[in-house]
Batch of 2 targets.
Target 1
Amino acid sequence: MLQPARTKYRKAFKGKIHGVATRGAELNFGSFGLKAIEPNRVTSKEIEAARVALTRHMKRAGRVWLRIFPNIPVTKKPIEVRMGKGKGGLEYYVFRVKPGRIIFEIDGVDETVAKEAFERAKAKLSIKTKMIKRLGTQ
């Protein structure tokens, strides 16, 4: 699973996701991309499952770029523990995705292969997404 090597603070606030993505909203590397169309938190497990589904369908042809990284820690209190007594322990890491953010980019495969690969990857994510392609790409 993806997680940062070091963080400045061990625990973070829950936070809210406002507005649309201005950074990471355009294709930079590949010809096709998977773009978020709703805001939500995406866990490191979801990202890894989507990446595996993507690469398996592409049969290791082409290239995949991961454009997000889970850097926000999420905590959870153990079950059957009373309220209070501080914040819970670290459970997993998430990335706050804004609408318009590119999640994956791929290149070196046909558009039909890319479309099917993104359909499989999109099923693993907890947000609505759509496939986009670079202008001038067949």
Note: The CA atoms of residues 62 and 111 lie 12 Å apart.
Target 2
Amino acid sequence: MVPDLREDAPTDEVQLPDGRTLAYATYGHPDGAPVVFCHGTPGSRISGRLGADATAEAGVRVIAPDRPGFGASDRQRGQTFADWAGDVAALTSELGVEEYGVVGFSGGGPYALACAAHTPGRVSRCAVVSGVGPPGSERGDLGFERALASASRVSPQFGRPLVWLMARAVASADSFTDVVGDADADLADPRRGESGRVLLADFREGLRQGTTPLATDYGVLYGDWDFDLADVTVPTRVFHGREDANVPLAAGERVASAVPDADLAVYENAGHFRPIVEEARDVYGWAAENEA
């Protein structure tokens, strides 16, 4: 029996200016340099727990909010990337944090970039980890990911049947690895270790409010973005595995080449999850300007 890590997941809340509730969790060093973590799709604040020991050792305080409709955060109609940047700015202001780094993993990559583009006075550095690329980018080798991307670009409604199938896959620890690539099978298997249990709990918590928020999020990710990568002027680093089957390296290369002050760190023999699981010290240390 795989333990359900959602049962002891930390949760705090703030009320946003428009009245919505935004849920978040903090990990790492409680007095460390602040870094906001933007979770994947699906996902939740729980994935901020990945690499928590490494972030604590690096002197980094990870602030991991749930996006609208995921986990314990209220839904939002007509959500945009700009809205998310505003939500993060409001959350950090409530916490007394004026400047922070951002880390975006997978589907959270564009949301981290949006924070850097829309609120550059607040964001010091932006790290994109295995991140989804801009419209027109190459899609992954996993069939359901390619189908979701294509359907969601037309309309979030078209993606809902595929989202439902994904939700069924993550309902069981035995089938969870069906939604990851071969290079990630060991890291993502909840029957084998801590990282897999965190990822399973993260996906399940991300689907807590049903599949509609996930379909909506895919629509934002694969629709037309409300910012240009050229608008991201803060120092940016793209961390990507060469064997990523969910989001190909070419997507990361495209982001790194389009952002004015960006570079690319490629991990050999690594899939989608290794950069955020096993290289958390590098990722968060860089984002917080606390490199060893």
Note: The radius of gyration is 17 Å.
